[in-house]
Amino acid sequence: MSALVVASLVWTVLATGFSGVALARLLRARRPSPSEGTRPPVLLLRPVDAPTPRELENLAAPIDYAGPLEQVVVSPYRPRLAPGVRWLPSDPLTPNRKVGHLLYALEVLQTRGRVVLAVDADVAVTGALVEGLAAPVASGAAALSTAAPTPVEPEDVASRAMTGLLRYTHHSFRALDVMSAGAKAVCGKALGLSPAAMEALKELADHIGEDLELSKRLHARGLDVALSAAPARVPVGSVGSWSTPLARFTRWMQVLASHRPALYPTVPLLFTPTLPLVLLAAVLGSPVLVGGVAILVVVRILLALRLAALSTATDGSVAGTRVQGPPSSPTGSTEPRTTTVDTGLPYALTDWLLGEALLLAAFLCSLWQQGTVTWRGRTYALRPGGRMERVVPELSGGPG
Q: Does the keyword field hold Transmembrane (predicted)?
């Protein structure tokens, strides 16, 4: 048996064991029963710069939350909003404009006696999501709450790859949550902020991946992060070009290398090993290696199916239907449109592999782009913890 076969077998065993542990922990996970009692008052902040038609639709959708709720859109220009949704003008100069929007809103709005949530405009907010984010913060059980980003309604192969990555692989935030050691995995698309988290956020206006740094700083203080039972549903539709998700996750790999350098090498070793190992098994022709890789594929499929089961019907929506475009919505529709909810189950068997391929490609691209990141049309040097320093054009070879 050659050294390459032995090394490949060791890699296969490690990857299979990693997936097996995650699967076992996810099989023990149970959906919490709906909580009873008074819902806390909530201030829902929606930071956005230039909302797309889909995002305008999300901002206009009614939110079935049983408690007091004020929704405030924080943006430079006033978008067309549904009745009852407030607009707060904001045009921050900070490198991280989202954090700049939030800091300005927290400075001028009344937060006392209310749980503050920050949810991106591409998230279709439900009452279950609001409750899932607000409850642990209001009870004091967590200093920060987050929700698993769950892409829905993919319409092409590129969007299916992105959906597969975030729903059916180890990069799903449900899988990341059960496998986290130390600071919890956090997605900045949907956050519940305690006073301690709001105070820590003030130091992150020049950071990319502020959610990771926020989790790290709170963990260092002994404060907990809670994962909402309800997901943050993100309608994706048609992405079109593969370059869009590839650029997004390449940037994410650069951010990961800056925030968690020890975790960065585990991406190809544990998170995306299937395609390289299948290729090695085919080239080397070792029956033992082929059998080991086959077991890995089976375990990964079972993991994808378990994640698909956990991500369906957890947001409190009516199974089988979803309403888009409420009457007089900013998108111009005057009647509700009913479409089928994306349960994810038909795609889980195949799209986990598309997701792994996307993340592996993003990792490889990030190897050639270490040290800098291009974000919102500007290039920054990345420092430890995701801190960004603007690259002066003259020093980067650009026009002076």
A: yes
